[in-house]
Amino acid sequence: MSLESVITSIDAEIERLENARTLLAGVGTVTHGKVTTSSTSATKARKRTLSAEGRRHIADAQRKRWAKQKKGK
After folding, report:
1. Per-residue pLDDT tens digits for 22-72
2. Structural domain contains residue 29
3. What is the pTM (predicted TM-score) of this model?
4. Domain membership flag for residue 15
């Protein structure tokens, strides 16, 4: 057995063990020998949108706060 074939088989064994550890830890899934982690996609937040009515409500409330502050001076 040559040195290159030993190194190749060790690398393959390391990859298999890492895949097994990842699956046992519950972090990701293995498809076609590749481990995909779902932690980033699971924690990725959706973009939140605000309706025109909601923006108008917030703007009116802020104008009331400004008026109250201006009145106090």
Report:
1. 888 876 666 666 656 655 555 577 888 999 999 999 999 999 999 999 988
2. yes
3. 0.37
4. yes
